[in-house]
Design a protein that fits this description.
Blueprint lengths: L7 H12 L4 H16 L9 H17 L3 H16 L1 H18 L5 H17 L2 H4 L1 H18 L4 H6 L1 H12 L19 H11 L1 H13 L6 H14 L3 H20 L4 H33 L5 H17 L2 H5 L2 H12 L4 H18 L1 H15 L5 H14 L1 H12 L6 H14 L7 H11 L5 H17 L2 H15 L4 H17 L8 H10 L6 H16 L10 H19 L23 H10 L2 H16 L3 H4 L3 H12 L5 H18 L7 H11 L5 H15 L5 H11 L5 H18 L5 H14 L5 H14 L5 H14 L5 H24 L3 H12 L8 H16 L1 H5 L2 H11 L5 H14 L6 H7 L5 H8 L10
Helix pairs in contact: 1-2, 1-3, 2-4, 3-5, 4-6, 5-6, 5-8, 6-8, 6-10, 8-10, 8-12, 10-13, 11-12, 12-14, 14-15, 14-16, 15-16, 16-19, 18-19, 18-20, 19-20, 19-21, 20-21, 20-22, 21-22, 21-23, 22-23, 23-25, 24-25, 24-26, 25-27, 26-27, 27-29, 28-29, 28-30, 30-32, 31-32, 31-34, 32-35, 34-35, ...
GO molecular function: protein kinase regulator activity
Keywords: Repeat
GO cellular component, one term: cytosol
Length: about 950
């Protein structure tokens, strides 16, 4: 064992390496057995200074590495053992003091705390201090050095130091320590001036000031134990608190400032309480001392201390009365103004809080003397960033008061890149405070978003994005109003910027915007016809974002407003391109973009799939209107998503209005979608044929029209026509009428695909039907026969022409009417074939006779004959005019007919038959049959007329 060694130094050095063992059990064994064994060496001459110094270093080094409870207790036991040995006392105590003095320079909390404990043991267990005044001074000064450090540490260490406070000052001052028991106010001391001088004599004024400053601060500690101990000691050693505070004020403020900037929230809280108590109790007496110290603190190179100054200013101003602060405004305002432009963000943040406190007392004076300086600093490149952050800080605490003073300076047009950036940064801080300033901020940002400088554009865009997202529910109406003004602006760039912000707002805002969505959707759809193509693209994207922000169950309620908006947009485009309302379809530019229908399609599809019957009807009609204004190229990718649901819905049991609307839309889709509908051809054909049997005329008519359009895409026409011909055997005239209408459309659109067998079958059945008793059946059959003529053989053509000319002289009106309808249809659809036929003259004779038809009261035969004659004249003017002598007299008589429809038809017929629009020569030639007045009047009629044929 180490104790067997004859030399204590050698023994101690032998066990020194073992002290560093990670085994706590082994360390404790060394300190409790081996080291005490060495201390029991009978020969005191061997206890050299070298031995003592080595022992102290070994103890201190051990606790620097291992600070567990067992090791601490074992080390304390060794120290007590050493101090209890008279032979060892002086050397060990001296070495301990030297270690305290040496290690106090390292500012280590744990080390300082351990040294305090050992010094307490030194005072308690030894007579060292009483033997020498110099020794006592050294111990106490060492304690004071480390005490100041420890008192700024965690509460655990501060509580543990309460005994040290008491022992230190009672030893130095020679007091009893009973001040607390004798009562009195918190600041009423039981000390004397002599005791105070004794403390200064032992510690020195600087050390005494440091300790008293720490002591005063912990009088407001979060721990009641620490507070009581500190107050006890203060009352014990301080005779005159105001006087003492005045003496220690620079050191106290230095301590408070450092603590206020500490990373420890507990330490900041203690310092804040202490400063507040200082001002509250001794305001008028200490403010003249505190304020200048704080103001000078801003020149400290340490940013943490500058931050502490700002926090201290806040505490002082929050505690002091308004009347007290008014005296110091000339110092407070410049100080805070300087701090707001500090290079360190944390300092500026604390300065902002100080400004808020200052504003409570100074009011508008604080704004008038600080804000203009910061705004001026914005114009300097070197100070602009810090000044901007300073504005952000004061804005974050006093938004409503400061904002009106800042915005006019920043929104001055043209907006600079920095001002745009500043607006965004300030908006982020101002938040809902911008609600009442949107009319000032947004117009400037919207204009800057279209600036020629890309940097300005980007910064303005970011700022505007920030603005629209920081407003709350109360500012929504104002924001929407400003954005709507923007989309109606004369400048395309502002319309474009406003559209973008609408989309950004609805996509990213956390507000409930469903109530605002309808107005935005309607506005953006109208904007899809904007003259500026870039604006159209942005409006389309914004529309997509707005619609996507709405819950899908709400979408069907927007169907009507979308239909109205599409109609308005279409009319706007029509006026822009100067297209008449009957001049054909108009495409909306926004629906010619890629993915054109993506924004609005969900609205209609949701209504079609899940809405009421009325809503489904509106959805189907709206889809048709949408398809009409969409380009064929853009429509391609939406053909299947639209057509599929339409086919599914029409197959269910819905009212006829729904079916009619769907059929109408499918007809439009067939016309615009073309070959993209190929996957649906069988389903569509089956659906349309089935609808021909519907009980409602509108459904049957729509289905017939759609089936005719569809046949142009089909490759199997013969079976379809065969089915239709079979359906003509139905007894229901209404169904037969619908089938004939469908058959007309099929032959018109796909007749060239029919086989000769089917053509003959159609021809045969029509020969009888054209003389039907039913007007509509007769008219439809005659129309089909006229279209079919181009697909007949020459012999069949002659047969047809002979049949209708012979029937024209029948005594039965329906027969005469049917034949003249057939002739009219042939001339309207295939005039060249009729004119080239050997029977053409017979046709003219037939028409001449029919123009004089007076076998009954109806004038319909005469009117139809005139229309047929007009068709011939328009189709073959040169070949027809040679027959003028044949029909001229009869035509002249028709101009005098008692029936208004006949006279109107006669005028149109005369215009083309006599070719009156070609000049005076033709007008004069016509006067052989009609009066000059009639000829000149008729020659002025328009070439084309809307008069029913």
């Amino acid at each position: 064992m180490a104790s067997d060694a004859t030399n204590p130094v050698d023994s101690l050095m032998a066990i020194a390496p073992s002290v560093s063992t990670p085994s706590t059990t082994r360390r404790i064994q060394i300190f409790r057995r081996q080291i005490p064994s060495i201390l029991n060496t009978p020969d005191s001459s061997q206890m050299t200074t070298e031995f003592v110094s080595l022992l102290v270093d070994l103890l201190f080094q051990t606790l620097s590495i291992y600070d567990d409870r067992g090791s601490r207790k074992a080390v304390d036991d060794v120290i007590i053992k050493a101090l209890s040995e008279a032979v060892f006392l002086k050397s060990f105590a001296a070495s301990l003091v030297q270690a305290m003095e040496r290690h106090s320079k390292f500012q280590s909390l744990t080390g300082s705390y351990r040294l305090l404990q050992w010094s307490c043991l030194l005072l308690i267990y030894s007579q060292f201090a009483s033997l020498s005044k110099n020794a006592l001074c050294r111990v106490v000064q060492a304690q004071a050095s480390v005490l100041h450090i420890v008192m700024q540490g965690p509460s655990r260490l501060r509580r543990a130091c309460s005994r040290t406070f008491f022992s230190l000052f009672t030893k130095v001052a020679g007091t009893s320590g009973k001040a607390l028991l004798e009562g009195g106010s918190d600041d009423e001391g039981a000390s004397t001036e002599a005791q105070g001088r004794a403390i200064i004599e032992v510690l020195g004024r600087d050390k005494r000031n440091e300790v008293l400053a720490a002591l005063y601060m912990v009088r407001t500690d979060v721990s009641i134990t620490v507070r009581q101990a500190a107050l006890h000691v203060w009352k014990t050693i301080v005779a005159n608190t105001p006087k003492t505070l005045k003496e220690i004020m620079p050191v106290l403020m230095n301590t408070l400032i450092t603590s206020l900037a500490s990373s420890s929230s507990e330490r900041r809280q203690v310092a804040g309480r202490s400063l507040g108590e200082l001002v509250r109790k001794l305001g008028d007496r200490v403010l003249p001392l505190i304020v200048p110290i704080l103001a000078q603190g801003l020149s400290d190179p340490n940013p943490s201390r500058r931050q502490g100054v700002c926090i201290g200013l806040s505490e002082v101003m929050a505690t002091a009365g308004k009347s007290q602060l008014l005296t110091f405004m000339d110092e407070l305002i410049p100080t805070i103004r300087t701090a707001l432009c500090d290079n360190t963000p944390e300092v500026r943040e604390s300065a902002g809080l100080a400004f808020s406190t200052l504003y409570k007392s100074a009011g508008m004076q604080a704004i008038d003397e600080i804000v203009p300086t910061l705004l001026l600093a914005l114009e300097d490149e070197q100070t602009s960033d810090t000044a901007l952050d300073g504005l952000k800080q004061i804005l974050s605490v006093r938004t409503s008061a400061v904002l009106p003073h800042i915005l006019p300076k920043l929104v001055h047009l043209p907006l600079s890149a920095f001002n745009a950036h500043a607006l965004g940064a300030l908006a982020e801080v101002a938040g809902p405070g911008l609600n009442f300033h949107l009319g000032t901020v947004l117009p400037a940002l919207l204009a800057a978003m279209g600036d020629g400088d890309e940097n300005v554009q980007e910064l303005a865009k970011k700022a505007a994005e920030t603005v629209v997202l920081v407003i709350d529910d109360e500012g929504t109406d104002s924001l929407i109003s400003e954005l709507l003004k923007g989309v109606a602006d004369n400048q395309a760039s502002i319309r474009r910027s406003s559209s973008y912000l609408i989309g950004y707002f609805f996509q990213n805002s956390k507000l409930y915007l469903v109530d605002e969505a309808p107005n935005m959707i309607s506005t953006l759809i109208v904007l899809l016809s904007d003259p500026d193509s870039a604006t159209v693209a942005v409006a389309w994207e914004a529309l997509l974002r707005v619609v996507n922000s709405v819950p899908k169950e709400v979408l069907p309620s927007y169907i009507k407003l979308v239909r109205d908006a599409v109609s308005t947009s279409r009319d706007k485009e029509r006026r822009k391109k100067k297209v008449s309302f009957d001049g054909g379809p108009v495409l909306i530019p926004g629906f010619a973009l890629p993915k054109a229908l993506q924004p609005v399609l969900p609205i209609f599809l949701q209504g079609l799939i899940s809405g009421s019957a009325e809503l489904r009807e509106q959805a189907a009609l709206g889809l048709g209107e949408l398809i009409e204004v969409t380009s064929e190229k853009a429509l391609k990718e939406f053909v299947i998503p639209i057509t599929g649901p339409l086919i599914r819905i029409i197959g269910d049991r819905f009212p006829w209005q729904v079916k009619s609307a769907i059929l109408s839309t499918l007809s439009i889709m067939i016309q615009k979608g073309g070959i993209a509908l190929k996957p649906f051809l069988p389903q569509l054909q089956t659906t349309f044929v089935k609808c021909l049997q519907d009980n409602t005329r509108t459904v049957r008519s729509s289905a017939a029209f759609a089936l005719g359009k569809l046949s142009a895409l089909s490759t199997r026409i013969d079976p379809l026509v065969g089915d239709l011909l079979s359906g003509l055997q139905a007894s229901d005239l209404a169904i037969r009428e619908a089938i004939l209408t469908a058959l007309e459309g099929v032959i018109k659109n796909a007749g060239k695909s029919l086989s000769s067998v089917v053509i003959t079958r159609v021809h045969t059945q029509l020969n009888d039907i054209i003389y039907s008793e039913d007007d509509q059946i007769r008219s439809s059959a005659a129309s089909i026969l006229g279209i079919l003529l181009q697909y007949l053989e020459n012999a069949q053509i002659s047969e047809v022409l002979t049949g209708v000319t012979d029937s024209a002289s029948s005594s039965t009106w329906t027969t005469r009417h049917g034949s003249i309808l057939a002739i009219s249809s042939m001339l309207r659809h295939n005039a060249a074939i009729v004119c080239a036929s050997p029977l053409f003259t017979s046709i003219i004779e037939c028409l001449k006779s029919s123009m004089k038809d007076e076998k009954d009261d109806s004038s319909e035969v005469r009117r139809r004959a005139l229309n047929a004659l007009k068709a011939v004249a328009k189709a073959n003017p040169q070949g027809f005019i040679i027959h003028t002598s044949l029909f001229g007299p009869a035509l002249a008589e028709c101009l005098k007919d008692g029936s208004m429809p006949v006279r109107l038809a006669a005028e149109r017929c005369a215009l083309h038959s006599f070719q009156l629009s070609k000049g005076t020569e033709y007008v004069q030639a016509a006067q052989k049959y009609i009066t000059g007045l009639d000829a000149r009047r008729i020659s002025k009629l328009p070439e084309h007329s809307t008069v029913m044929s």
